[in-house]
UniProtKB/TrEMBL annotation:
<dbReference type="InterPro" id="IPR023299">
    <property type="entry name" value="ATPase_P-typ_cyto_dom_N"/>
</dbReference>
<dbReference type="GO" id="GO:0005886">
    <property type="term" value="C:plasma membrane"/>
</dbReference>
<keyword id="KW-0460">Magnesium</keyword>
<dbReference type="InterPro" id="IPR023214">
    <property type="entry name" value="HAD_sf"/>
</dbReference>
<dbReference type="Pfam" id="PF13246">
    <property type="entry name" value="Cation_ATPase"/>
</dbReference>
<dbReference type="InterPro" id="IPR036412">
    <property type="entry name" value="HAD-like_sf"/>
</dbReference>
<dbReference type="GO" id="GO:0000166">
    <property type="term" value="F:nucleotide binding"/>
</dbReference>
<protein>
    <submittedName>
        <fullName>Alpha carbonic anhydrase 4, variant 2</fullName>
    </submittedName>
</protein>
<dbReference type="GO" id="GO:0005388">
    <property type="term" value="F:P-type calcium transporter activity"/>
</dbReference>
Length: 173
């Protein structure tokens, strides 16, 4: 999600918030520990991405916040997709609700297939699904875009084993 903001001096700034791995790819700069804007080379971006993955593996949802000053002539309908400065990674703990693990176990014991379909990052989704007892040994976790690119034959083969679908769209459900 991005928004354009007119500044008092007439400049226009766009603020962007969203899925960490997506927003990070839009950034070519970062705010360092001293508050200075510096380049974000591949090796530093990898460190940031590894940090995001670490949070996700602990079942934490993450968002990146980024900013970019833009040319006023770009107009309101042309929010840029590159050239942002990464200003923060926010981690959010959304604990599994009490009783969910037990409900999942009852469903499984009754022969009901339980699947998690979420917009979350794949690593966050897998961590939460393991915590709830949804993702088991041999179960498949897949991202929505990867699933949508499968042929009908591949889908037919994989669907019975899918336990988690991350970065999904309503159509994937």
């Amino acid at each position: 999600m991005s928004v354009l903001v007119g500044l008092p001096d007439g400049r226009v700034r766009t603020f962007c918030k969203g899925a960490s791995e997506i927003v990070l790819k839009m950034c070519d700069k970062i705010i360092d520990n001293n508050g200075t804007t510096v380049d974000l080379p591949q090796e530093k971006a990898k460190i940031v991405n590894d940090t995001i993955d670490g949070f996700a593996n602990e079942a934490l949802r993450t968002l990146c916040l980024a900013v970019k000053d833009i040319d006023e002539t770009q107009g309101e309908n042309n929010i840029p997709e590159t050239g942002y400065t990464l200003i923060a990674i926010v981690e959010i703990k959304d604990p599994v609700r009490p009783g969910i693990k037990e409900v999942v176990q009852k469903c499984l014991a009754a022969g009901i297939s339980v699947r998690m379909v979420t917009g979350d990052n794949i690593n966050t989704a897998k961590a939460i699904a393991r915590e709830c007892g949804i993702l088991t040994e041999g179960g498949i976790a897949i991202e929505g875009p990867e699933f949508r690119n499968l042929s009908p034959e591949q889908m037919k083969d994989i669907i019975p084993r899918i336990q988690v679908m991350a970065r999904s769209l309503p159509l994937d459900k």
